[in-house]
From TrEMBL:
One Pfam family here: FAD-oxidase_C
Molecular function in Gene Ontology: flavin adenine dinucleotide binding; oxidoreductase activity
Keywords, sorted A to Z: FAD, Flavoprotein, Oxidoreductase
Lineage of origin: unclassified sequences, metagenomes, ecological metagenomes
Name by which UniProt lists this protein: Unannotated protein
Domain FAD-binding oxidoreductase/transferase type 4 C-terminal: start-end pairs: 2-200
Organism encoding this protein: freshwater metagenome
UniProt-listed SUPFAM superfamilies: FAD-linked oxidases, C-terminal domain
Cofactor: FAD
InterPro entries, per database record: FAD-bd_oxidored_4_C, FAD-linked_Oxase-like_C, FAD-linked_OxidoTrans_Type4, Vanillyl_alc_oxidase_C-sub2
Family designation: Belongs to the FAD-binding oxidoreductase/transferase type 4 family.
Amino acid sequence: MVAVEDFAHLGLDTKAGALLLFGDDGDLVSIEQSVSKMADIAKASNGCRGVTLAADVAAAEALLYARRCSLPALARLSSLSILEDISVPRKAMAEVVKRIEAIGKSHGLRIGTFGHAGDGNLHPTIVLDKDNPAEVAAAEKALAEIFALPLEFGGSITGEHGVGSAKLPYLEAKIGAVNMQLQRNIKKVFDPAGILNPGRIGS
């Protein structure tokens, strides 16, 4: 919150632990009903510091900018930002965000988390000095702990960004040894020489 406010100067409550943005589409009546209902739910929840309703599209876009600028707001804090991607059941999101914050503190790292509450997709983003070997090593340990988190809650080590090479060491913990071997076997059928997408699963 502090990083976004320092970057964008939107008048955000920097003492708040999180910001939830809710939007809807459809006809005017249905939008007003859904937004009003969501506002009532938020006001009745524990820990809610306030609810702001956008009066028009321009005001809504201004609020959405807080989400859109999350990554650049964090990236400017140091020489390297590592944007990651996990997914968890929606009911577990608050607990997982708290756990990510605790992981950051335990390793002496700054980790900002943003994402998509509608589908449980979270983007923990580690900010560190790329020329500091201790911070780089701490980030690697923190990432291993972060990737283990969603598995505790029935989630996944990826949400929308895929596995690639960075998460390959953590994939077996999610899908199991049998499925890993199955994927390798399927890859060999179509790529017996291992020339397609080297360095990924099945190569």
